[in-house]
Automatic annotation (TrEMBL):
Gene3D superfamilies: Periplasmic binding protein-like II (3.40.190.10). This is Extracellular solute-binding protein. CDD domains: PBP2_AlgQ_like_1. The lineage of its organism: Bacteria, Bacillati, Bacillota, Bacilli, Bacillales. Keywords: Cell membrane, Lipoprotein, Membrane, Palmitate, Signal. Residues 1-20 form the signal peptide. It holds the Pfam family SBP_bac_1. It comes from the Bacteria.
Length: 549
């Protein structure tokens, strides 16, 4: 588990990771060869990226013409040229694969989040190692972040060399806590849960004491998604497993000997599955829990038919806001995760990175890339000479009477997010930085000092800030997946079968279709059907990347 001390980063590291978490760019040439080209002191760097529907522009603008690209060209001498976009990661990665297999020139800089594709690109010899460039061109603040999170480089480390720059996540930005219908608690005279036993009493009341007052027994206790795994990003069940041990299903963690072990086959899983079966039999869970994914599971909570959901702080905006809108008078509050019988608490920990920036072997301007990246971090650090009040006047702020105003209603045409125009696809984040800052703002009640604090924290509301503070205060209970490499050889051959077997076994135990002893049979079959070999391969990978620079 990650310790709280590790999460309490310096302000510098915190701010830096924030920016890195948003980078998704490429740099290449403006000519057909793919080599970056310099003309009149301006370096053209090509890139490709995903572009989601919620990225908005002012009329007449696009990814190649917006306030960030104009700033980059004028102040840094970098002209970014986005060659193409894709609406989602799947289509994006397919286009990269096609370019690789057909021998096309790669863009100068591009982000990849698929582990196998990262490995294939590195093995192809078409992307360059970055160790020398980091040493020569990365700013002190970037180097500091990279030194604090060496494991962030593991996904793009091969034979002791690093081939990618991490696109950092928020660290704990998508870690979950409990969201509970407080109006139901108050109506039934209940207190928030501190233990799993407390939670059971609440769920029992939510199911059997008509909390919505419609005279029908039509409510459930806990919204849970399990179709794609029980430790997930929304309607998360990881806290249940964390209450019984230091492992999460579908995740690789350090065992007692320091080697990586697969969470789904550890003995503590059995206790959690027994508890889930008990809850299902008592009607605390949706009858169709086994086939519900994240999107379908939340429907019960949004409709006002469920009283509890485990979700990240950003859920305050969705789906919590939808539940409040659909159920007049509803009050939903965030609460810490409860402890198990032995005092254990645990949750699925978000990974450190959401992708890696790779660079064409022909790219000649790593110095410019790092200059651009550092200036983006400078905004998060609030020490930028270019972004003193915000990213772009008329987009995320306006000046009135000599002072910046961040209120959406005061910005002609409404506030837009220029951070989405960076190659990072959003304002980057250093792992754990954002929620450290949220906690400081929430507990001290001070006013935001800059655009970043207003637009990324305060404007999201009290509920989000309270939830993020709670998550940050429980950082010591994170259980992070330590395996971030490409699928191993045996995973490629047997992984699909093993995953299917695991999910079917877990679902059957929860539904009561199979006895609890089926877990022991599953563990034995998992090991015999490739699991033992996969464990060996995972640890070989782990040892190889730990020894890298």
């Amino acid at each position: 588990m990650l310790k709280k001390a590790f999460a309490a980063l310096t302000a510098t590291a915190l701010a830096v990771g924030m920016l890195a978490g948003c980078t998704d760019s490429q740099s290449s040439s403006s000519n057909e060869s793919g080599d970056s080209k310099e003309k009149n002191g301006i370096v053209t760097i090509t890139t490709v990226r995903t572009l989601k529907d919620d990225t908005k522009f002012r009329e007449g603008e696009d990814l190649n013409n917006n306030p960030i690209t104009r700033w980059s060209e004028k102040e840094l001498g970098i002209k970014w040229k986005t060659l193409w976009t894709a609406p989602n990661d799947e289509q994006y990665h397919n286009k990269i694969r096609l370019a690789l297999s057909s021998g096309q020139k790669l863009p100068d800089v591009f982000k990849v989040s698929d582990g196998q594709l990262i490995n294939d690109l590195i093995r192809s010899g078409k992307v360059m190692p970055v160790d020398e460039a980091i040493e020569k061109y990365a700013s002190p603040r970037l180097k500091k972040i990279y030194e604090q999170f060496p494991e962030a480089f593991y996904p793009a480390t091969v034979d002791g060399k690093r081939y990618g720059i991490p696109r950092f996540s928020g660290g704990n930005g998508s870690d979950s806590l409990l969201w509970i219908r407080k109006d139901w608690l108050d109506k039934l005279g209940l207190q928030p849960p501190k233990t799993i036993e407390d939670l059971e009493k609440i769920m029992d009341a939510f199911v059997n004491k008509d909390p919505d007052g419609n005279g029908k027994k039509d409510t459930i206790g806990l919204t849970l998604a399990s179709k794609n795994g029980l430790a997930t990003w929304l309607a998360d069940g990881s806290f249940i497993f964390g209450a019984y041990g230091n492992y999460e299903p579908g995740s690789w963690s350090k065992g007692e000997d320091g080697k990586l072990v697969y969470g789904s086959v550890q003995p503590s899983m059995k206790k959690a599955l027994a508890k889930l079966n008990e809850w299902y039999e008592k009607g605390y869970l949706d009858k169709e829990v086994g086939i519900l994914d994240e999107q379908t599971a939340i429907k019960s909570f949004v409709a006002g038919k469920s009283g509890i959901i485990s979700a990240p702080p950003w859920a305050a905006g969705w789906p919590i806001a939808d539940a409040l809108k659909n159920n007049p008078g509803a009050i939903v509050e965030p609460y810490p995760l409860p402890s198990g019988p032995d005092g254990k608490i645990g949750r699925r920990g978000e990974g450190l990175v959401t992708g890696m920036f790779l660079f064409s072997k022909d790219f000649k301007h790593m110095d410019k890339f790092f200059q651009y990246l550092d200036e983006a971090y400078a905004y998060v650090y609030n020490d930028s000479k270019y972004f003193k009040y915000g990213l772009a006047e008329g987009y995320d702020y306006v000046m009135k009477n000599g002072k910046p105003v961040y209120d959406d209603k005061e910005i002609p045409g409404g506030r837009l997010d220029p951070g989405a125009y960076f190659i990072t696809e959003a304002i980057p984040t250093v792992p754990y930085m954002l929620y450290d800052l949220v906690e400081e703002l929430y507990t001290t009640k001070r006013q935001p000092k800059n655009a970043y604090e207003y637009t990324r924290i305060v404007s999201l509301g009290e509920s989000f800030m309270k939830a993020a503070t709670i998550v940050n205060q429980q950082n010591q209970y994170r259980i992070e997946n330590e395996f971030t490499g490409p699928p191993t050889k045996t995973m490629q051959k047997r992984g699909e079968f093993l995953t299917k077997m695991e999910r079917e076994t877990f679902a059957n135990i929860i539904y009561g279709r199979a006895p609890l002893s089926a877990f022991d049979d599953f563990v034995k079959k998992w090991e015999e059907s490739g699991g033992k070999e996969i464990t060996k391969e995972v640890n070989e990978w782990y040892q190889s990347v730990k020894g890298a620079k």
